[in-house]
Design a protein that fits this description.
There is one protein chain. The protein has 576 residues and is of the alpha+beta class. It folds into 4 domains: 109 residues; 166 residues, no CATH class; 110 residues, no CATH class; 119 residues, Transferase(Phosphotransferase), domain 1 (Orthogonal Bundle), CATH 1.10.510. Helix content is 43%, strand content 15%. It contains 19 helices and 19 strands.
Length: 576
């Protein structure tokens, strides 16, 4: 009876996972239609919908198991046996990797994230290293004795798009010219191309992703972003053929790709060969399997702990008013804990902060908002915490802590990619880097605003600089939708005495924002003020913000390219 019940519960969990991933693939499969129909509003809705499936199905399965088991079997020993049965079901299962994460989620939902260890959960994979065969060929190989023009012509003819190419020969000539200049005409003459058959869709673009194989066995990553013209024809907008440039396309501040992947492990393995600096956690997350990305991140974290001995300590920079932030110096991430009490000017609740972080996960991040992974009951070795850090957490967030002789458990935690705080970066930057950083900051604000996000707290301490010198926003407690804000011009003073008053001479509503005031609290440094006035003075004009609001309300979304202008091939004015 018990063995039969264990198997039944294991089947129930796997069936729940199959139902979830089936819906995930259904929404993903619609990406081509949304792209070709230029239905950008539905692109954003589909992103949010696809993210919601996971927690919804975890909840359904958890409730079903609790009904099935009742009090007789609802214990950890029984579910440990269920895990063994579940492992048997995954032996020939093509999505064993993300199915293990789904099991973990169901277990944690039932037992509220307590008693997490490798015996009861898939802390480590039961099939580490196994790559399930893809249901069909993952890639298609192109080669031509007649040179690269014919190779790319075949590739473009065999893409799954139903729209026509605006000027296929022009695009091929531009691609070949770019590659010849980078790698030499002789090398390209005999190059082969291995292309992932399924395009990657995100925002207003489709990406053809693969690698060039040169005669000397050199492998070169290749990404060709495809856009649509106003009259719905296709063109190749850029040619990316260096690891750093491709890495930015897969960056942690980007929205998740929609790519049809019935067996994600094989796709991730191929991508990891193209991008050796990207971890499996980053790549699973990039293709939309962010919950399994969370599992992989935890595994990578455990591996890092085993091979390091430094201590966790408070993160550098100005302390936050809502979050305690700490880091491990040798580790490329920060850990964020919501404080029990916020600074007086922060009129919000803990629940509101969590809602803001969820909003960011579900929104188009346009390369300007860092993704986060959320954990519960996260355990640390107490001996690895500095005294200062533990005292800070006990003072600022005691309700989130469980402290024993051996471990520190944080009940609710965000993990986020570590960056150099913008305010610290500009203090040490040379003139060229300072100019670039100020320009990046202004572009970050503008691109977020065009994507319907108003950062709220625009202070420099709330932004970070990545290794690619991109400026990214990472403090979300005050973000709002642009459409919720009332951008106003400061009324002229009624009397000379008005300007000397400590209080404004005009009324201020809850959602009123006065862009003219940005100068006062942002541009204290004269060098920064001069650069800002030169590069982004329009941010101080209420009319600029009101124009963006109008675009959003009319469903017009600006282009935000995850690559530099110099990589673009076609710049015709009528392209959108």
């Amino acid at each position: 009876m018990t063995a039969a019940m264990e198997q039944l519960v294991a089947h129930t969990i796997l069936q729940g996972f199959d139902a979830m991933y089936g819906r995930f693939l259904d929404v993903t499969a619609g990406a081509q239609d949304r792209f070709e129909n230029q239905d950008w509003m539905s692109v954003h809705q589909a992103l949010k919908q696809r993210i919601s499936f996971y927690d919804h199905h975890v909840e359904l399965v958890s409730r079903q198991i609790q009904i099935m088991l009742g009090r007789q079997y609802a214990n950890r020993e029984f579910l440990t046996a269920v895990k063994s049965s579940y492992e048997d079901l995954l032996l020939d299962y093509p999505r064993y990797d993300i199915a293990e994460s789904f099991f973990n989620s169901v277990y944690c939902r039932i037992f509220e994230h307590r008693d997490i260890n490798r015996d009861k959960l898939f802390v480590h994979s039961s099939q580490a290293g196994r790559i399930a065969p893809y249901p069909t060929a993952l890639t298609r190989l192109y080669q031509s004795e007649n040179g690269p023009h014919y190779l790319f012509e075949r590739m473009m003819d065999e893409t799954p798009f139903t729209l026509s190419w605006e000027d296929k020969n022009r695009d091929i000539a531009l691609i070949v010219a770019r590659l010849n200049s980078e790698f030499g005409t002789a090398a390209m003459q005999k190059a082969r191309l291995e292309l992932i058959k399924e395009p990657f869709y995100r925002n207003k673009a489709a990406y053809l992703i693969g690698r060039l194989l040169l005669e000397d066995n050199t492998q070169i990553p290749l990404v060709l972003p495809v856009l649509t013209t106003d009259n719905r024809q296709l063109y190749v907008d850029a040619c990316l053929c260096h690891v750093d440039d491709v890495s930015i396309v897969f960056g942690f501040a980007r929205s998740y790709f929609m790519v049809y992947a019935p067996a994600p492990a094989a796709l991730v393995r191929f991508l990891s060969e193209l991008l050796p600096n990207k971890t499996h956690a980053e790549l699973y997350t990039a293709i939309g399997c962010q919950k399994h990305g969370k599992t992989e991140l935890y595994r990578e974290f455990l591996h890092h702990l085993e091979h390091s001995d430094d201590k966790f300590d408070l993160a550098p920079g100005i302390k936050g008013m809502v979050m305690c932030v700490f880091t491990l110096p040798s580790y490329g991430f920060v850990f964020k804990v919501i404080k029990d009490k916020f600074a007086p000017q922060k009129e919000m609740s803990r629940a509101t902060v969590k809602e803001k972080y969820q909003l960011v996960k579900e929104h188009d991040r346009v390369g300007r908002m860092a993704d986060t992974q959320e954990y519960r009951n996260f355990s640390f070795d107490r001996s690895r915490f500095s005294t200062e850090l533990l005292e800070e957490l006990q003072r600022e967030a005691p309700s989130s802590l469980i402290v024993t002789d051996k471990e520190i458990i944080i009940k609710h935690l965000y993990i986020e990619r570590r960056m150099i705080p913008f305010n610290l970066y500009i203090e040490q930057a040379n003139d060229d880097d300072l100019r670039h950083a100020v320009d990046e900051y202004g572009k970050a604000i503008k691109q977020l605003a065009a994507a319907n996000i108003f950062p709220g707290d625009m202070l420099f301490k709330n932004f970070g600089v990545t290794r690619h010198k991109r400026v990214v926003f990472y403090d979300y407690d005050e973000i709002s939708y642009m459409t919720e804000i009332n951008f106003r011009r400061i009324p002229p003073p009624r009397f000379p005495e008005d300007e000397l008053s400590a209080e404004p001479w005009y009324s201020v509503g809850t959602n009123d924002v006065f862009p003219e005031e940005f100068r006062t609290f942002l541009l204290i440094n004269p060098k920064v003020r001069k650069l800002f006035d030169e590069l982004h003075s329009d941010l101080f004009d209420p009319g600029y913000w009101q124009h963006l609001q109008s675009n959003i309300e009319q469903g017009r979304f600006e282009d935000v390219f995850p690559y530099k202008e110099k990589h673009r091939l076609v710049r015709a004015q009528n392209h959108s």
